[in-house]
Amino acid sequence: MPLHVDIQMNSFPILGTFTISRGSKTTAEVVTCTIVADGWAGHGECVPYRRYGESLESVVAEIEAIRGSIETGLSRSDLLEAMKPGAARNAVDCALWDLEAKRTGMSVASRLGITDPKPLTTAYTISMGEPEAMASQAREHAHRPLLKVKVGTGDDESRIRAVRSAAPDAMIILDANEGWPEDVLVHHLQIAAEAGVALVEQPLPAGRDAMLGEIKRPILVCADESVHQTGDLAALRDRYDAINIKLDKSGGLTEALVMKKEAQRLGFQVMVGCMVGTSLAMAPAVLLAQDAEFVDLDGPLLLARDRDPGLRYEASLVFPPTTALWG
């Protein structure tokens, strides 16, 4: 029986406003790919990222361009060659994983050799703002064991100190989203170390991060925008201690699994992260993150409305997906 591909653009409201160094948004705009065969439907979600030139329309166009190949039985391995890494390939790849699980009756976790997937502690994101506002957010969520704090200006010392004071017991990750100028890098890393920050994500712009290999790093530094796929890893060993794998960057779970294995072989610590999306986007990432050092899969916690059914969250614990959702 031939396959059928359905593509939809969906919008989910965010609780309040989500702000990083590059801007703010109030909705999560996603593309949902559904592949139907033999009465079964596999689903995948992606979040187009303007930082990489993606939009809802461009992602839909990428999937439409390969619709014929998908509907005639394109495999996931062939997909790696047929589409470039990015959001569009992620939606198709995850839909194929889900469809395979439903058609065979074997869960994705089982196919990956995960016999008993565990709930994971996810970071909770504190949006960027003035120090007092960020401290207020951190105080509200100070009971959470792991906070991810958005920074990314030339003067983040007050933000770092304010958040640490408001959440003295939480583990903190800073995410600068390429926003630190070189002339404050060493100072900000030192302030972060003094505040007991566990890790800093992408302090310098991708492609202009060589300075990280020339300084003594007092805490772990994690690549995000600098790393998309497996082939990027080897060149980053002198400047990063960890990498952030996001399915929307790697172009799906298939490539992300290879990427994680190679990153571990090279000695990187692994974070599994996300864009602001729904539980459908997080579900495959929860399985990918089962042995990751850092987990940042709080997308649905930032939404005013999630998919139904969605992932189960209890405080900062995110539980593996049920087959009713994905996989």
Give an account of the 3D structure:
The protein contains eleven helices and 14 strands. The chain has 327 residues and is of the alpha/beta class. The strands form three sheets. It has an eight-stranded parallel beta sheet with strand order 5-6-7-8-9-10-11-12. It has a three-stranded antiparallel beta sheet with strand order 1-2-3. A three-stranded antiparallel beta sheet has the order 4-14-13, with no helix packed on it. Helix 1 (56-65) crosses helix 4 and helix 6 (131-140) runs parallel beside helix 7 (157-166). The radius of gyration is 19 Å and the shape is globular. The model has no long low-confidence stretch (mean pLDDT 96).
